[in-house]
Amino acid sequence: MPDKEERFLIVVSILGGRSFPKRPQHKLIIDTKFDGELLSTDPVDHTERPNVTQELAWQLDKKGLQQHRLHRSSIKVQCYAYDTISTMKEMIGYAVLDLRSATMKQTSKWYPLLHSKYTRHKAEIQLGLYLDHDTGDEVGKKLEDLAGVSIKHPNLLCPVLNESGGYYQIGPPDVCKDIFILSVTIGYATNLAQLIPGSTPLPDSSAGYHFYYSLFGNNVTNESFSNLIRPEFAPERASVKIRSSLQVLSVFLSKQPGIQIHLCCKDVSLGRCEVPLNTLLQDGSTEIYMQPVVLDGTYQILPLTPSKNSEGSYPVVGVTVALRKEDVGNADKNKQAAPQLVPEKLDQEEGEKPNVPKSDNIEYSNTFEDKTGESISSITDPGNEKKAQNPDAPSIPPKTISPPKVNPPVNVNVSDSKSTGESLTKNHVAIPAQLHHFTFSIDLNSITGIEGTNTKNIFLRYVYPFFGSVAPILTHPTVEISKGVEVLLPHSFCAFDFACLIDQLQETFIRVPLFVEVWERDRSLAKDVLLGTGRLPLAQILAAEKTRTVNSTNGSGWRQVYRDSVLVSSVSGNSQKVASISVVLTMEDWGPIHEQEILLSNHSSSLQKAPEEGNKNYNAIPPPEEPKDIRETREYQIALELEMWKEMQQQKFENELKQKEITYMKVLADEWKKRDKEREVVLQKKLSEYNQLEDQLNKALKNLEKKERELIIKEKEIVHLRNDHEREHERKMIEMKEASQRLQEDCEHRIQLERIKVSEMEGLISKYKQELIDAEKKYASLEKEISLFKEQQNSKPEVRLHSEINMLTLEKVELERKLDSVTKSKIHYKQQWGRALKELARLKQREQATAKAQLKRQQQELEEMRLRYIANEEKESMKNDKKELEEIKNELNRLRLAEEQLQLQQQQQQHAAALFKEKQITRSPRSYQTPVNGHDEHITRLIEERDILLRTGVYTSQDRIIADLDQQIKEAISQRKS
């Protein structure tokens, strides 16, 4: 019993691959086939080293496992490249695993792809094959039990918020572990003016109108708009993360009533529509594993107060609901990134980049330019709070306070302060209160190629000294672009902190442009080539809409966001457009800077002691007279102190730079030593391998010499055997010649005997021919006698009538057969006609639905054209129908007349043929009943045709064809009564 119950799992572990070509538009899918069952992995990115890290397993008992091992069964692993655009799968190679090598130990090995499509790359995949004890189908049973219970009691499936993970849990956490992203996007709306009630007053509409809906208990509103006739608003996507399984989520969504979207004016709802969710996931569908499941449609907004709308002008809203399964790679990236917002704060599309936490694993670039921006960060205000930057972008400088050269000239104010018992004087330099603290961020989202057919590796570069940094800003790494393809730019977000006057900011943005350079990294020339430049419209952000914002220190300010697409012109001077860059500019004004005071030292003090004694109080002295030398002025002293401070900071920066250089050189030296040791180890290993190969070659050489000696001995034996074979061949040839001579003599004797027999047979043939001629003459005389006898018999009236009756009977059978074929063709024609009418009605409905989505002017023109087309088509169909009906009616009349003539002939023949009187009496009731039965069938057929035409919905009782059928039915009834 224990042996029968013991079960195993055959597990194929697919870890990854190497030496694959990079194909951004494709996904890699690996199928494994064993014992007629096919299992597939989830799609992963088709990169040079794809990371799969998935396991596929088959369940077998111990006996079945032994049988497969005895039969030397194998597992075939096939790799496919899945095109995400055309959804086509192409096989790129396969590998074969031997089941006999599977053990309980988990090991992996690199396997080359057999019959690989990538001939230039020796693609390999890392596979592992091992056995594991099967603990049972507990998880599967839980899912089945959960699905069964949820169908009976759908209230048991309730989403539970997990704040630490930032997702909603649907189903048991130990079973439902897949991550899904559900997003809702409101794209557009039309004819919203129909929702304004005529009797109920609306609140103040100055705040605008907006759409509102609830997603998992979270209230979501989109951007407000004021024009209901032509509403213009940016599409916004609200998404929520769900942790569940596909089966449980399908049951949950099938029981949901849908998402109700309201059009609101402040807190008043003007109308609503419902977007169903029960059709988002179909039972048994696996489409979500290949691509997101999208429900895109236009939904009619129903007003809360009933109103009469003209046909074709219903208010509608375009909504897109998408559900996608989060990949394993994306889930790992999300774990390393900042925590996701909990579903109360839904992720709406904005022009801001999320904060990314700093990473310890910083990759240092090879150029000094990439480090310049980072080193300048030492000249920052230690009290200023830095915002999080992208840790993977060393070329992007952190937010810094601009150098003093941006500030206006410094004013010197001498104030007298009075206190009890004594008078003290302090010398102050006050920074004007008009200086504002600005944060300006530039986000180069993506780039789209316009010209050229070749793929290019490009990066973007720009510099703007007004922001306080003269170091160039670069995007890295390089990306590949081609014509008509939009590519996202990595590490393209940069923010600057600086202080200046508002007027100075506006004047600089208007006069000084910011140029973005597009460079191509040409590896063949080992240098970078400038492709073109694009001008960022900095002045446009000054006219953008201002919104309130709050920083991390609870300080409030104003934010302005501007989005645009910038064209890149070629540097060749022919005004050719090279590419298009999608840019998001954001400027935040945190208000005026608080007044700062810089204490001045005594003029008699040395310049070296000035910073140390600047905070001391001095005895009051009368205001000095205007000095004769400009170097003795306070302004000069302040500028001198600032220059000295600048030199000190530069020295400090140089020291830090040297220290970093020493550190990096030390790291490089350690890395060099480490790699030198590794090379030594590899060299020793290769030397030992080469010695082993040399020994193997010596052994192989000795074996070859031995085999060569054996071959010489065998060649001598072959020569001896060949001589023996030649002698045997000559002996057999002599024997064959003697045998052929004997056979020839025997054949000549037989030929003579056959000639004698032929002459005898020719005599017999001539005798038989004479007998045949005599028989033919006798046969001709007998035929003449028979024909005379038949003429005598045919002259009798009974025989002639009998033959005529037979001929008429045959004609009647032929007519009945033709009538049946005409009836069948009529039924087939009616079926085809009904289908055509239904298809015509369906096409009419589709055309009406398409016409409603177009503009009113085009709708009216298309409606008139459609009506003309339908009228002409109905006229043609009616003409064809009438023609067919007339032909059928004529055919029926002809058949009826033929049958009546046949009956009259039969009645006339009754008097002449007394022998057939009883048969005619038995046939007479049938002949009397035939016209009546024919009338009934004709009436029934006409009624069925009329009902079929009315059921199609195309014709009514007032149409001409229906009236003609009614008239024919009445005439047929009157004929039957008469």
TrEMBL record:
Domain spans labelled DUF3668: 158-325
Short name of one Pfam family: DUF3668
Biased composition (Low complexity): 408-418
Keyword Coiled coil: yes
Name of the protein in its database record: CEP120
The species this protein was found in: Acanthosepion pharaonis
Compositionally skewed regions (Pro residues) per UniProt: 394-407
Coiled-coil segments on the chain, per record: 683-910
Basic and acidic residues: compositionally biased ranges: 344-355
GO BP annotation list: positive regulation of centriole elongation
Positions of the UniProt region annotated as Disordered: 330-423, 608-627
